[in-house]
UniProtKB/TrEMBL annotation:
Taxonomic source organism: Streptomyces griseoluteus
Secretion signal span: none
Entry's family note: Belongs to the DyP-type peroxidase family.
Domain Dyp-type peroxidase N-terminal, chain residue ranges per copy: 6-135
Keywords from the UniProt entry: Iron, Metal-binding, Oxidoreductase, Peroxidase
Protein name stated in the entry: Dyp-type peroxidase
InterPro entries: Dimeric_a/b-barrel, Dyp_perox_C, Dyp_perox_N, Dyp_peroxidase
Cofactor: heme b
Pfam families with a match to the protein in the record: Dyp_perox_C (PF20628), Dyp_perox_N (PF04261)
Family matches, as SUPFAM superfamilies: Dimeric alpha+beta barrel
Length: 308
């Protein structure tokens, strides 16, 4: 397997999600390709300035940009984010050619990196989304539940997130899905703690798992547990809270890395359509998805070789 990007980096105090589209014309595409290929050098410019902390950036390329940008065949499962229309809630599909997922111990490094990156791109791209998230107390999301607990660790982490021999040309790569959610905190806070816990599937104060419902309405945790004859299929989530209190905007930026794209897609289907339908994930009654894009993060060498 060729060396992956920093898919397994830990949750940090700050993270940015920068989504770009490549402008039309051969010149813009050529320029974008050069900047994409120079990711290692751009990262070095920042990393040398970081004392002991963490600074990582993963770069994803969407189905739309893959062939014109890379001039290589598509990774086996890469396709555009499919809109999912449930009886009450929709997982919208939005535009995006490139994703830069930056993780750092402080926002200054995130801003510095984005600045030099966007200067390098010049007129070749348009930023369609740029959100910087922060670590909320005890690793909680803005619904005030600890978020990220069930993430795979140890050897399960690469097994859940990195493509293997099923697609040898792209072994070491990872599928990544992003969705920006905006919360209705007033309505959420109007619910009792017990109701909130039933919706999430864990206790609020001490983060203990509640038993799975065997029938009827399932919790978020249960709907996102994907099991088949091979066992449980995990993904790696690096969700970050973000907020602009003055505008009343409070949200969760969902990001999920997986070895198999279908696993994340299945979770979304169970959340939005429900299992059984129409019993959708009640987290959606308080959280509206306003974006949805799928990318593939190829191994490092693949990106660097694009310069040739
Ligand atoms: C579990 C929050 C969206 C997949 C959880 C937990 C919380 C949470 C608090 C329980 C603790 C944990 O294990 O992390 C949220 C919020 C979301 C969101 C606030 C957006 C509003 C999603 C989406 C997916 C997803 C879109 C997948 C497509 C999962 C998975 C688990 C989980 C796989 C662990 C299930 C298990 O226990 O095995 N989420 N989540 N989440 N969530 Fe989400």
């Amino acid at each position: 397997m060729t060396e992956p990007q920093d898919i397994d980096a830990p949750l940090t105090a700050a993270a940015a999600f920068l989504v770009l589209t490549i402008n039309s014309g051969d010149e813009a595409m050529d320029q974008a390709r050069l900047v994409v290929a120079s990711i290692e050098d751009l990262l070095k410019d920042i990393k040398i300035q970081v004392n002991t902390g963490i600074f990582t950036c993963n770069l994803g390329i969407s189905h739309h940009a893959w062939e014109p940008l890379t001039r290589k065949p598509l990774p086996k499962e890469l396709k555009p984010f499919q809109e999912i229309r449930g009886a009450q809630h929709t997982a919208v599909a939005t535009e995006g050619d490139l994703l830069y997922h930056v993780r750092a111990d402080s926002v200054d490094l995130v801003v510095e990196f984005e600045k030099i990156l966007l200067e390098a791109f010049g007129d070749s791209v348009t930023a369609v989304d740029d959100v910087t998230g922060f670590r909320y107390y005890n690793g909680r999301d803005l619904l005030e539940f600890v978020d990220g607990t069930a993430n795979p660790i140890g050897l399960s982490l690469p097994a859940a997130t990195l493509v293997g021999e099923e697609d040898p040309a792209y072994a070491g790569g990872s599928y990544v899905v992003i969705q920006k959610y905006l919360h209705d905190l007033k309505d959420w806070r109007a619910q009792t703690t017990e109701t909130q816990e039933q919706i999430i599937g864990r206790t609020k104060f001490d983060n203990i798992e509640l038993p799975d419902a065997t029938e009827g309405q399932k919790s978020h945790k249960t709907l996102c547990t994907i099991e088949d004859a091979e066992g449980e299929h995990d993904i790696l989530r690096d969700n970050m809270p973000f907020a602009t209190p003055g505008k009343g905007e409070y949200g969760t930026y969902f990001i999920g890395y997986s070895r198999h794209l279908w696993v994340t897609e299945k979770m979304l289907e169970r959340m939005f359509i429900g299992d059984p339908p129409p019993l959708h994930d009640r987290i959606l009654d308080y959280s509206r998805a306003v974006t949805g894009v799928t990318f593939f993060c190829p191994p490092r060498k693949f990106l660097v070789d694009l310069a040739d």
